[in-house]
Design a protein that fits this description.
The chain is built from two helices and no strands. By secondary structure, it is mainly α. The chain is flat, with a radius of gyration of 16 Å. The model has no long low-confidence stretch (mean pLDDT 89). The chain binds heme C. Heme C (HEC) binds next to α2.
């Protein structure tokens, strides 16, 4: 498979803010990549675990 060359980007405060907005809200990355408290309604993210990994998707799912 042919891959595109990575685009060189310059980090700017505006780009980091846009990325944080997308990751933390629009694309819900942290819903999976954080620990969640499944004993509470809607399984809220446990503070301090954001982006540290989280749900395991393995053979236990979909069986
Ligand atoms: C529905 C749950 C879910 C959401 C939402 C999610 N991820 Fe993931 N992510 C996973 C799982 C599961 C894996 C591990 C996949 C695997 O190992 O095959 C993973 C893997 C990754 C990896 C590692 C890829 C690698 O090659 O090792 C990165 C980086 C990542 N996710 C970033 C993100 C970002 C950025 C977002 C938001 C745009 C996001 N994830 C949203 C579940 C999710």
């Amino acid at each position: 498979m042919e891959r595109m060359a990575p685009e060189a980007l310059t980090s700017t405060p505006a780009r980091r803010a846009r990325g944080a907005y997308l990751v933390e809200h629009v694309t819900v990355c942290l819903d999976c990549h954080s620990q969640r408290d499944w004993d509470l309604y809607s399984a809220p993210i446990i503070a301090g675990t954001e982006g540290q990994g989280g749900e395991t998707f393995d053979d236990r799912h979909g069986v």
